[in-house]
Amino acid sequence: MLATQGCAIIGGGSPRNLDVISVSSPQFRDGAPLPQDYSCKGGQGNPPLRWSGTSGAKSVALVVDDSSTHGGPEVHWVVFDIDPDTTELGMDDVPRGARLGRTTSGKVGYTPPCRTDGSYRFTVYALDAKLSLEQGAGLARTLESIASHTIARGRLTANTIE
Questions:
Q1: pLDDT tens for residues 121-161?
Q2: Number of helical H runs and strand E runs in the chain
């Protein structure tokens, strides 16, 4: 349950005012369906993403979750310690030097979503520090660390899967 609470902190809001990061993808628009290629029925891995508004950050993190599940949010991907000068992520790519945390399923890496009626949030966080976590760090611990260091946040949401 702690992982769900941690995700709610990062995914749902924060008690402090945060700067806004602009997040986009060349493959889908905010509120549009996620292309099937990036779901469990496709084979492309994660979709490409672009962002701006992370100046002043010491590192960047990315969390992909489905906020529409009845048992609480399901986390599909956690990437942290992304170099703050990085402004995009390629298809099926992890930036050099970045680390991956565990997902809700316990897997390390992108776990493609399957629910066609999901609401998939690709949230980018600007952080005031690099996280002192190892590759494959546990979900609750990673989400708590991201939440406690967030100085800016932006989100791109895919409603459903094509």
A1: 999 999 999 998 999 999 999 999 999 999 999 999 999 99
A2: 2, 9
**What is the token pair recorded at 139?**
């979900």
Number of domains in the chain: 1
Q: Under the phi-then-psi rule, with left for phi > 0, alpha for psi from -120 to 50, and beta for the rest, what region is 145?
A: alpha
Under a CB-based contact definition with an 8 Å cutoff, are residues 54 and 126 in contact? Answer: yes
The beta strands (E) that lie in 6-144 are given as 19-20, 22-24, 49-52, 59-66, 74-82, 88-89, 99-100, 119-127
Looking up residue 96, the CATH number of its domain turns out to be 3.90.280.10
Edge-to-edge strand list for the sheet holding 22-24: 22-24, 49-52, 88-89
Query: At a CB cut-off of 8 Å and minimum separation 6, what does 123 contact?
Result: 10, 11, 23, 62, 63, 64, 65, 153, 154, 155
The pTM assigned to this predicted structure is 0.90
Token pair listed for 137: 């760090």
- The domain in which residue 90 lies consists of 2-159
